[in-house]
Specification:
The chain is α/β, with parallel strands linked by helices. Helix content is about 25%, strand content about 35%. Strands 1, 2, 3, 4, 5, 6, 7 and 8 form an 8-stranded mixed beta sheet that branches. The longest helix is centred in the C-terminal third of the chain and has 27 residues. It is elongated.
Length: about 200
């Protein structure tokens, strides 16, 4: 079982042990059909210290945080997820510019976010694993720093097994659902509605 090593904290912290690296992919969203001459900068999401690492968090219960043994994300989670958000917005073709920083020092909009949940969760009977992602987003107009809209996004997806790849695939499905809603909402705030899937 994947979780059998969760209690061995010394093994989890062993930096000499090579870890399998995983990353999430941006969902395949519809093309916008037209491009707004607007720019969007996407800040790295803020999060708690337990999530601000490259390890994959699992909660055996509501009060305990551990990391899955032998695996990690390809980058620190907030930076990895910033990249996935960038790709999701960029791939729609809806905006003239999407980046990590405003184009030319000043831009039109900025997406600020906080990730409050990004973990696998063990069921009460210890038999199954689900992944949970929750993100709070704010769309800000750069010219006056006004918050134009705020919304929370969440998805919970069960993993088909407790094997690392199955857990990561469940993370990817949860991420797809969150990003589909996030991108549609964000573009709608900016002034463009994506076609239905």
């Amino acid at each position: 079982m994947l979780l059998s090593g969760c209690g061995a904290l010394s093994a989890l912290g062993d930096a000499t042990t090579p870890l399998d690296a995983f990353e999430l992919r941006a969902p395949a969203l519809p093309q916008a059909g037209r491009m707004l001459q607007r720019s969007l900068s996407i800040e790295p999401p803020t999060t708690s210290g337990a999530l601000s690492v490259d390890r994959i968090l699992i909660r055996p219960n509501a009060l305990q945080s551990l990391y899955l043994p032998g695996v990690r994300w390809s980058d620190e989670m907030p930076l990895m997820y910033q990249t996935v958000m960038l790709r999701a917005f960029e791939d729609t073709g809806a905006l003239a510019y999407v980046g990590r920083r405003p184009l030319g020092g000043s831009g039109d909009f900025a997406l600020l976010s906080e990730i409050t949940d990004f973990q696998a969760e063990l069921s009460a009977d210890g038999e199954s694993v689900s992944t949970r992602i929750r993100l709070v987003a704010r769309m800000v107009r750069e010219t006056d720093a006004r918050v134009l809209a705020r919304r929370s996004f969440q998805s919970v997806v069960p993993a088909v097994s407790s094997e690392a790849l199955d857990v990561v695939q469940a993370f990817n499905l949860a991420s797809d659902a969150v990003l589909d809603d996030l991108v549609r909402w964000g573009l709608d705030v900016i002034g463009l509605r994506l076609p239905a899937a």
